[in-house]
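Progress against Task 2.4 (sequence-to-structure conversion) is shown through the following example record, which the project officer requested during the mid-term review.
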Amino acid sequence: MVKPLEFWFEFASTYSYLSAARIEDACAKAGVPLVWRSFLLGPVFSAQGMTDSPFNMFPVKGAYMWTDIARCCSDLGLPFAKPSSFPRGSLLAARIAAAHSDAPWVGAFVRAVYHANFAEDRDISDDDVIATLLNEIGLDAAPVLAAATAPEGKALLRRATEEALERGVFGAPSFVVNGALFWGNDRLEQALAHARAS
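Structure tokens generated for the chain above:
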């Protein structure tokens, strides 16, 4: 029986942009159910003793990452513009994705936020930008925002981040299939194969 694939992502994550752009189609083609799992990298990095993105803490690694991301986006036909601020806060967007993870529009929202950040250099930490993105994908922003910022909505993202730590997720993107962890955009196909073989 095919197992679902959990996609653990963070909106500040460059490589998650690549995965988010293709994961829905890839899962559909493979016949693998997709579960969207929004979480925050800050607490995960903090638990590893880091106070910033490793791409900022290690400049040589960061310089390589920006070159690599540009190449990968070109290969995938994805637009890319290096953000003027990195990493950008994405708390509201993450809360929305966590609170509405089962909504039929969550994939479109996730892709819209990544596109805004990594293709258009829009400030996804701005609540008005997020509301505009919701409107742009055909939603009434007010009830979506209300659900995500209610105590129950906030708790969902908090619990998801705690679960990520408990399950050994240490970066994004990560894919979890039947308890097995796969890290990095280049492991998506391996995770899909595992889901079909499980």
